[in-house]
Design brief:
about 325 residues; Zinc Finger, Delta Prime, domain 3; five-stranded parallel sheet; two-stranded parallel ribbon; 17 helices; 7 strands
Amino acid sequence: MTYQQILTDLKNKRYQPIYFLHGSEPYFIDLISDFIEKNVLNEGEKAFNQTILYGKEIDHLAVVDAARRYPMMSSHQVIIIKEAQEMKTLKNLESYFLKPLQTTILVICHKHKRFNTNSKFGKLVKGKSVFFDSKKLWDNQVPDWIRDYLRSKSLKITSQGANLMAEYLGTDLSKITNELEKLIINLPKGTEITNAHIEEYVGISREYNIFELQKAIGAKDIAKVNRIVNYFISNPKKNPLVLVVGTLFNYFSKIYMFHFLKNASEQEIMSSMKLRSSYVLKEYRVTLRNYSFLKTTEVLNILKEFDLKSKGVDFNNVGKPDGALLKEMTWRILH
């Protein structure tokens, strides 16, 4: 089931005895478990019928003991196990999965990694619970997710604005929603969010951001690169060197891949590189023309070197300001 289907059933009070939520994206797991925690029982029922447990602190016996109790003055009781990936005897819940109590809603939150469904217990879990696999979004899925999220809050966003936020914030949905809430709080319903709104309320500059920097480096626009680098040096908290290096490494990793795909069809290239639009592909073609395969390999090695320097691993650069490292790195990439 998708998280939307699960939430729809919950809103319609169609409850199941066991929910097993697992996967690498904690956002959707939190979304479902938080809804159950806040909405299944009213405030009066929660005092006697809602229990929050933590995987590191409990074993299967404590869970079974709690789950076998009957609710008091309520149709259901709710038990939520948070951080279930830390529970050492999780697989020993097999007997409860075989015969769960229908008046108990047991929610197991197994975060940050997928649960092994190939084991005997894994197959049982999959067949005897509402089994939800919370997957991280691909980079090219994030702009659409941002648009859908804002649409649910009665706001719109330009394609350029959605792309800017997706590129700057990455695929961490908790981080993205925190930044989107700044826009939701400050803008009236029906507003179409533009880059100007994003710069004002989120703090992502339209002209001086990491993605304008990578575009300028790709085009070998030295004057623009220098302007952006100087802006970054003046605003180090907004543009930490570690983030800049990581983003550029991801960018040039795709250019490296592109060298092997340059004779493929546009559709195949976009699918393999997980690009969201042909407009982005045009930018990549410019970079491909400016950086040979050998130069691309050299750039990746430069970025690996400065990743270590930015983290203080290179003892020859201890005490060297991040701004100086950024200038040196971009100069070496461009020349």
